[in-house]
Amino acid sequence: MDGIMPRDDLLAFARRDWAGIEAEKARFWTERKASMSPAEALAVGDALRRHALKPGWPDSIEREAGLAVHRRVSEVLNAVSRNRPR
Question: What is the model's pTM?
Answer without folding.
Answer: 0.46
